[in-house]
Amino acid sequence: MQNNPNNPYDDVFNHLAKIVEDIVKNMPDNEHARIVGYTIISRHPLDGEPGIFRAGIPVDDGEIPFEMTETDDQIFITAEMPTTIKNAPVVDIEPERVQITADDLTTTIMLDHKVDRFHSYYRVHRSVMDITLKKERLV
Q1: Least trusted range by pLDDT, from 39-53, 84-98, 104-118
Q2: What pairing do the DSSP bridges indicate for beta strands 66-70 and 115-125?
Q3: CA-based, 20 to 30 A from 97: which of 23, 34, 112, 131?
Q4: Average pLDDT over the chain, rounded to an integer
Q5: Among 67, 96, 103, 99, which Cα is nearest to 82's?
């Protein structure tokens, strides 16, 4: 990360990156730890395997790269937004799919579990989109 003399927050982000690095190094089983967006995942509590898998690797320039992980009641999607977009990216959350649109780029993610679209949300910060989906409860 290169400091910009006009940005007073650069030092803060450098320190924060160091803090996160130290946290991950000191986690149990840190060789399996991953950082996804603003979430640190170490191991799945039931089977000990990391709860992350890589998906959505762009086949062409028309897709947005993303990573997805899930817990018993939520699905987390982190997408890397292109720095060249002119308009705010938009997410369309449906019970069985999520569609991310950033200018002329669109990625559709099919979900293995239905989600409650009214209790799901997304945010974009520093070209990283974090989507949190609440799984529907099976009755």
Answers
A1: 39-53
A2: unpaired
A3: 34
A4: 77
A5: 103
